[in-house]
Amino acid sequence: MTKMLLQEREKWKDVIVLFANTGQEDEKTLEFVHNCDVSFGYNTVWLEAKVDPEKGRGTSFEIVTYETASRDGKPFEDVIAKYGIPFTKSPHCTRELKLYPIQAYIRSLGLKKSDYKMAIGIRVDEFDRVSANAKENSLIYPLVEHNVTKQDVLNWWRGQPFDLDIPEHYGNCTWCWKKSFRKLFTLLKERPDVFEFPEKMERLYGNRGALAAKLGKDLKFFRGFKSVEDLRQMAAEGYNEFVDQHYLDISNGCSESCEVNFDETFQYELDLGA
User: Fold this and answer.
1) What whole-number distance in Å separates Cα of residue 131 and Cα of residue 139?
2) Which residues, at least 6 apart from 147, have a Cβ–Cβ distance to it below 8 Å?
3) CA pair distance 51, 55, nearest whole angstrom
């Protein structure tokens, strides 16, 4: 999609490529963004959330690079320390780690919402994921507009010198709480180390945030209000491992992804009565 937009640059005054790093991206994701810059000249602006711990002060951004981007989860931990554990009823990780830093950066350029369009990489065969509020939030979907399917994407990448090379059940955010139990159980077996961060966050910040106070109990990341330890116990009872049949292909592995979605942000604010 990005390559397409840059090839059609004459349609736009400028094209700015942004990547918001959460600090918990798979290392291959960071390598992939870097390789795109090197191979295609994207000149990507790497952003991370800059969280002000004071109540009432919103998340801003800081510019990093491939070399300096967080790998230890610090931006994510800063968000959790202030707002609490994100989970199905409180999906604020996308809002604070991606949406708000991107919006803050755009404002720093002196641009208003009416001055730009934000391109989202959803394909035509994923049309059900298109935001219902796309027009009012200045979102565009070039792959939908150009009728690009999953197979088109796979065919294009086969002709490139590199690929994302991440199994479907890993995805960009390896331990993402949006994933199915089957994927998470498989990850627990293959990469138990990736669960060290969410388990630490549950231990340190389970009682943080407005929702934890409202519910009067510690929050947990995973669907069904399950903790990392709950996942271990469930996995020990047995399951069918997830096998990615198209490991070297770009797949729909990020169907549980965290692309900027204004609908989720709005629903979160409704849930908290904001």
Assistant:
1) 8
2) 124
3) 10
Percent of the chain with pLDDT over 70: 89
Residues 108-133: tens digit of each pLDDT? 999 998 899 999 999 999 999 999 99
Q: Whole-prediction pTM value?
A: 0.85
Q: Which two tokens stand for residue 105?
A: 């950066």
3-state class (DSSP) for residue 1 = coil
Q: What is the spatial distance between Cα 271 and Cα 153, in angstroms, rounded to a whole number?
A: 37
For domain 2-167+261-271, the question of CATH label 3.40.50 is answered with yes
Whole-number Å distance between alpha carbons of 262 and 89: 15
Assess whether pLDDT exceeds 70 at residue 47.
yes
Mean pLDDT of the chain: 88
Q: Are strands 139-140 and 45-50 parallel, antiparallel or unpaired?
A: unpaired
Domain boundaries along the sequence of the chain: 2-167+261-271
Tokens coding 165: 């090379």
Residue 60 belongs to what H/E stretch? strand 60-64
Instruction: Confirm if 169 and 186 have CB atoms less than 8 A apart.
Output: yes
Quickly count: other Cβ atoms within 10 Å of residue 83's Cβ.
Answer: 22
Helical ranges in 176-227 per DSSP H: 181-190, 196-205, 210-215
pLDDT value at residue 259:
58
Distance CA(94)–CA(22), nearest Å, equals 9
